[in-house]
């Protein structure tokens, strides 16, 4: 952040200055007021505690040595107790640097030595103010996502995702079996977890198991358990996932890959509510909410004899289909920003801004790996980007050159030679409107123009 960044009113911070030397406090306040920060001055620990109880601050600047040698650390503790979203900067003399460094581990944002270089001091407070602002933005975004979409981890405002969320809310309170379908990477496991979270069984066990690639004997053991001596090496009784999930929810992923020979046993358990461990004769009663998922067409598998029809109808009490990402492109900006925020937080970095050209590339890409592929790409972009801004050059090459151009954002020249600029602009607006499902705000953002300009262009070109 540059030294004049705080002149943007959105970055003006409420700053509490704690210093028992009035003249020094006034000098700091004057340096911060010039770029627009609002400063409150107090002269000691008790006064600081009172302000923290009754005021609201983004940044606290405190001298380390006041009433006693570590009074500033007590101010830091009061900030963390009463205003945990604020950040604290310690002002120290040269001999107190080791104490200040230790304070960083205790949660201080940074420290600066006396005598102050006011330019360095102002830049430090600007950076601290920006950190707080980014945290607030991230919190607001998270709150907006929760309020708008209402189901943990499932992000989107497209008609397809809203339909999925509506189905989740309807089926969650019941015990009807749910079959979740969709391509790999669409988030089927998130839907299963949301069903459990919103159900009456939320406080009970939630067990997940993937049937893909499992041999029949191992699959049977994992699902139903065994008794001691059931086979060589079975030296003790062991419960399977059905017993483990008793009273809760069992999510069986990739059920379409289950061996045909195992399917009758699964059907019997679902119909009777009883499991028999390997090597045992006595059944054990279980009460399990059954949710399964597949990326395969079970109806076609059933017709081909590769999946039992009676089991198919048993697990398909309600089917929830998750559309692929290419069919809900208007969700891509939301997912990109959410993922960028998450990965930036993991790396303890500011949330990067995504440039409009980069976002347009991401929206236009086909995403064969769906949300899983998108999150992986965003992770790579967050690592690669500079100056906390994701540009086209940071977009993975396989996405950037999907349409055959590798020039960092320009369109292929050959097919556009002689085409009028008005026609190009109209087509860009038309295609972007289609991508966003007619959302004018998103369209304007992707095109890099204001909404009023977009509205004028729509009228000019006769677009809706």
Short synopsis of the structure:
The chain is an alpha/beta fold.
Can you tell me about this structure?
It is a single chain. It is built from 19 helices and 16 strands. By secondary structure, it is an alpha/beta fold. The strands form 5 sheets. A 5-stranded parallel β-sheet has the order 2-1-3-4-5, with helices on both faces. Strands 7-10-13-6-14 form a 5-stranded parallel β-sheet. Strands 8-9 form a two-stranded antiparallel sheet. 45% of the residues lie in helices and 13% in strands. Mean pLDDT is 86; it is low at 1-10 and 403-417. It has 3 domains: 5-136, Response regulator (Rossmann fold, 3-Layer(aba) Sandwich), CATH 3.40.50; 171-323, P-loop containing nucleotide triphosphate hydrolases (Rossmann fold), CATH 3.40.50.300; 329-461, Helicase, Ruva Protein, domain 3 (Orthogonal Bundle). It has helices at 22-33, 45-54, 71-82, 97-105, 118-149, 159-171, 188-197, 216-224, 241-244, 263-272, 298-303, 309-315, 332-346, 356-364, 370-384, 397-400, 421-435, 440-447, 451-461, and strands spanning 14-18, 38-42, 59-63, 87-92, 110-113, 178-181, 206-210, 225-226, 238-239, 249-253, 274-275, 284-285, 289-294, 318-321, 353-354, 389-390.
CATH architecture of the largest domain: 3-Layer(aba) Sandwich
Number of helices: 19
General shape: flat
Q: End-to-end span in angstroms?
A: 40 Å
Q: Report the CATH superfamily of the largest domain.
A: P-loop containing nucleotide triphosphate hydrolases
- The helix-and-strand class reads alpha/beta
Strand portion: 5-15%
State the major sheet: 5 strands, parallel
Helix content: 40-55%
The beta-strand count equals 16
Low-pLDDT segments, ≥5 res: 1-10, 403-417
CATH topology grouping of the largest domain: Rossmann fold
């Amino acid at each position: 952040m540059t030294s004049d960044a705080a002149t943007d009113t959105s970055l003006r911070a409420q700053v509490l200055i704690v210093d028992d030397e009035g003249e020094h406090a006034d000098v700091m306040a004057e340096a911060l007021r010039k770029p627009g920060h609002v400063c409150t001055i107090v002269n000691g620990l008790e006064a600081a505690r009172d302000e923290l109880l009754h005021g609201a601050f983004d940044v606290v600047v405190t001298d380390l040595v006041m009433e006693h040698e570590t009074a500033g650390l007590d101010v830091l503790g009061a900030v963390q107790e009463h205003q945990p979203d604020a950040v604290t900067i310690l002002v120290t003399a040269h001999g107190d640097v080791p104490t200040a460094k230790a304070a960083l581990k205790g949660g201080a944002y940074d420290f600066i030595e006396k005598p102050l270089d006011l330019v360095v001091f102002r830049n430090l407070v600007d950076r601290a103010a920006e950190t707080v602002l980014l945290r607030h933005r991230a919190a607001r975004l998270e709150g907006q996502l929760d309020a708008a979409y209402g189901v943990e981890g499932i992000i989107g405002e497209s008609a397809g995702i809203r339909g999925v969320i509506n189905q989740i809310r309807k089926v969650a309170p019941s015990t009807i079996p749910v079959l979740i379908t969709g391509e790999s990477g669409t988030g089927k496991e998130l839907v299963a977890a949301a069903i459990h979270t919103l159900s009456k069984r939320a406080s009970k066990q939630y067990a997940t198991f993937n049937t893909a690639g499992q041999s029949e004997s191992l699959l049977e053991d994992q699902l139903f358990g065994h008794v001691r001596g059931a086979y060589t090496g079975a030296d003790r009784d062991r419960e399977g996932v059905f017993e483990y999930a008793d009273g809760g929810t069992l999510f069986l992923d990739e059920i379409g890959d289950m061996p045909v020979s195992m399917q009758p046993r699964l059907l019997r358990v679902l119909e009777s509510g009883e499991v028999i461990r390997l090597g045992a004769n006595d059944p054990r009663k279980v009460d399990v909410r059954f949710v399964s998922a597949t990326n395969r067409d079970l109806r076609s598998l059933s017709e081909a004899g590769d999946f039992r029809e009676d089991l198919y109808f048993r697990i398909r009490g309600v089917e929830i289909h998750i559309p692929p990402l290419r069919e809900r492109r208007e969700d891509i900006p939301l997912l990109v920003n959410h993922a960028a925020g998450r990965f930036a937080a993991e790396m303890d970095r500011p949330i990067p801004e995504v440039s409009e050209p980069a976002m347009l590339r991401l929206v236009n890409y086909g995403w064969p790996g769906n949300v899983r592929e998108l999150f992986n790409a965003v992770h790579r972009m967050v690592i690669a980007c500079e100056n906390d801004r994701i540009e086209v050059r940071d977009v993975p090459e396989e996405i950037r050159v999907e349409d055959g151009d590798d020039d960092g954002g320009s369109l292929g020249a050959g097919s556009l030679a002689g085409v009028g600029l008005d026609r190009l602009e109209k087509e860009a607006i038309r295609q972007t409107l289609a991508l966003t499902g007619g959302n004018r705000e998103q369209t304007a953002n992707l095109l890099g123009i204001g909404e009023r300009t977009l509205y004028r262009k729509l009228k000019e070109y006769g677009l809706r």
